[in-house]
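=== Structural record ===
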Amino acid sequence: MKRQFTTFCLFLFVATAMFSCKKDETSLKARIIGKWTVNKIEVSGNTNAALNGTFNYTVNDYMDFKANDDDQVELSLNNQRTIGTYTGSLGNDFTMSFPEGISYCTTSTLTTNQLQFTAKIDKTNIVKVYYLTR
């Protein structure tokens, strides 16, 4: 009886280890994690017209979706770094929270080297379309 119990426990341990360590490669969050170069951001909806338009960036500008427990996202534009958080939702949607507010984002393009999404900032008319590459 003791041998059967030991065999059962060993089997249970191996089965648990095999299925619990499966890497998530299909969720939106798993596919956007990492550092992306910001190529341009198209902004509309600002009451100040000078803040609307297409803004182009250099290879030094980036957005980094961290894989840590805090779900941090780091945005660095023109040597100005901002830390926020992001949360994956169902399908192609996610949210980002920066000091300027919460953005509700919808992904339109996501490949291994290209990410494009539209971000609507909560309680405003401001919409930003981000064009990122790796």
User: Anything to note?
Assistant: DSSP finds two helices and nine strands in the chain. The mean pLDDT is 88. Helices lie at 2-20, 28-32. Residues 42 and 54 are 4 Å apart (CA to CA).
